[in-house]
């Protein structure tokens, strides 16, 4: 039985999707906007950011990131996939601080990497006050306040002499440049690039970006539901029983509404786990809409074409692709061998865009606008025009 229903483009109680509301950008009080892939721990929900990109707020209002067991102050986030940070121990304003020996920054197994074309410096601890080193002293060693900390770049001719006379160890640091001197360069910090799921399509479609650690995949939180990459141009709403449905609005109808009638007639005859379920439809004059079960991960097309610029968060492994192919094959077999009332259905438009995936990436065939219904006892199917996608 197909229901004819009336829809509103919002939840039944008028409220917004909770995760959409939760992922509002925030700040650490220094007016620096914090949003995906970052989130403020204890203030914003972890699903609003990418794993490992949780920030904390310092007493001075600056956010900071923990890396290699050290705090790095975030001076500025550029939402073109970069940010400028500095080790918190070098962010003090006084010119002759005593510095602890900080660990070298290690970025392996993270989504962060040093931006190219920056300068590498060596910090040498526990240095004696030799004449050739005095101009390079930036402070004292916190472990041994009688020893000095010397900063040099790789090209410095005195680097070898310093390595022999500084007994407190060496730390590699990166700076964006050396303008204003090494001390200022250390305070100003360096640039990091990040590589995570692209947020632009979600944001441009009116959604807020996030991440689901249960399926380890990017999510686009929309005003009324969750999508895999961007908010659907079709509507998705929550019914009174709290179930989500998707609404396909047919804006330009071919012929005399042939596709609308064809899709309702075709899919209403089906009942299979690999065929999307038509819940109902509605129409008013030239406006027509189809109501389907909600498929959280959208179409297969978004996951397999390079033109979508998908990162590793979106890629389907070989086993998942195999199971999707098997599911589509079973759905086609069901359509071709015969559905209800001794009929067969030929889809004529099978393509990744018309294969929908649920929250577990289980595939279902959709879009029966070009389908043709045939009796099972007919072995030849005749058509007046070409069908399908070229």
Helix content: 10-25%
What Rg is obtained from the alpha carbons, in whole angstroms?
30 Å
| Principal-axis shape | elongated
Number of strands: 26
Quaternary structure state of the chains depicted = single chain
The order of strands across the largest sheet is 4-5-6-7-8-15-10
Largest sheet: 7 strands, mixed
Sequence stretches where pLDDT stays below 50 over 5 or more residues = 1-13, 306-312
Please give a handful of descriptors for the protein shown.
390 residues; alpha+beta; Transferase(Phosphotransferase), domain 1; seven-stranded mixed sheet; five-stranded mixed sheet; 7 helices; elongated; disordered N terminus
What does this structure look like?
It is a single-pass type I membrane protein. This is non-specific serine/threonine protein kinase. This protein is α+β, with helices and mostly antiparallel strands. Among the domains are: 54-194, no CATH class; 236-299 and 316-375, Transferase(Phosphotransferase), domain 1 (Orthogonal Bundle), CATH 1.10.510. Helices cover 15% and strands 31% of the residues. The chain contains seven helices and 26 strands. The protein has helices spanning 18-22, 159-165, 182-188, 200-204, 258-267, 301-304, 318-337; strands at 3-4, 26-27, 33-34, 39-40, 54-57, 63-67, 70-78, 82-87, 98-99, 112-114, 119-127, 137-141, 148-153, 170-175, 190-194, 208-212, 217-221, 226-227, 235-238, 244-250, 278-284, 287-293, 343-346, 355-357, 363-365, 372-375. A seven-stranded mixed beta sheet has the order 4-5-6-7-8-15-10, covered by helices on one side. It has a five-stranded mixed beta sheet with strand order 1-21-22-20-19, covered by helices on one side. The two termini are 34 Å apart. The model is unreliable at 1-13 and 306-312 (pLDDT under 50).
């Amino acid at each position: 039985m197909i229901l004819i229903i009336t829809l509103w483009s919002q939840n039944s109680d008028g409220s917004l999707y909770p995760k959409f509301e939760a992922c509002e950008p925030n700040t650490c009080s220094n007016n620096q906007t914090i949003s995906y892939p970052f989130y403020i721990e204890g203030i914003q929900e972890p699903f609003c950011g990418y794993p490992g990109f949780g920030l904390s707020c310092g007493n001075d209002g600056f956010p900071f990131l923990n890396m290699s067991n050290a705090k790095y102050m975030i001076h500025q986030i550029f939402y073109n996939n970069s940010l400028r940070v500095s080790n918190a121990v070098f962010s003090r304003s006084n010119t002759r601080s005593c510095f602890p020996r900080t660990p070298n920054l290690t970025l392996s197994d993270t989504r962060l990497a040093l931006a190219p074309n920056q300068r590498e410096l060596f910090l040498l601890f526990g240095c004696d006050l030799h004449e050739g080193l005095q101009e390079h002293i930036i402070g004292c060693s916190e472990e041994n306040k009688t020893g000095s900390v010397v900063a040099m770049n790789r090209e410095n001719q005195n680097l070898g002499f310093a390595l022999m006379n500084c007994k407190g160890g060496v730390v590699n640091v990166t700076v964006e440049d050396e303008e204003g001197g090494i001390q200022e360069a250390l305070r100003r910090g360096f640039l990091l690039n990040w590589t995570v799921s692209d947020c632009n399509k979600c944001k441009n479609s009116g959604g807020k970006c996030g991440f689901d650690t249960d399926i380890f995949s990017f999510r686009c939180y929309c005003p009324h539901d969750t999508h895999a990459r961007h908010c659907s141009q079709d509507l998705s709403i929550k019914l009174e029983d709290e179930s989500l449905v998707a609404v396909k609005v047919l804006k330009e109808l071919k012929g005399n509404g042939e596709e609308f009638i064809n899709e309702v007639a075709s899919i209403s005859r089906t009942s299979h786990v690999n065929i999307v379920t038509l819940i109902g439809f509605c129409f008013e004059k030239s406006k027509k809409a189809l109501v389907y079960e909600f498929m959280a991960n959208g179409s297969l097309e978004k996951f397999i074409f390079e033109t979508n610029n998908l990162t590793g968060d979106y890629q389907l492994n070989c086993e998942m692709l195999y199971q999707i192919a098997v599911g589509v094959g079973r759905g086609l077999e069901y359509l071709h061998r015969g559905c209800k009332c001794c009929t067969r259905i030929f889809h004529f438009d099978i393509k990744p865009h018309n294969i929908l995936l649920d929250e577990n990436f289980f595939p279902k065939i959709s879009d029966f606008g070009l389908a043709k219904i045939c009796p099972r006892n007919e072995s030849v199917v005749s058509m007046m025009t070409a069908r399908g996608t070229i």
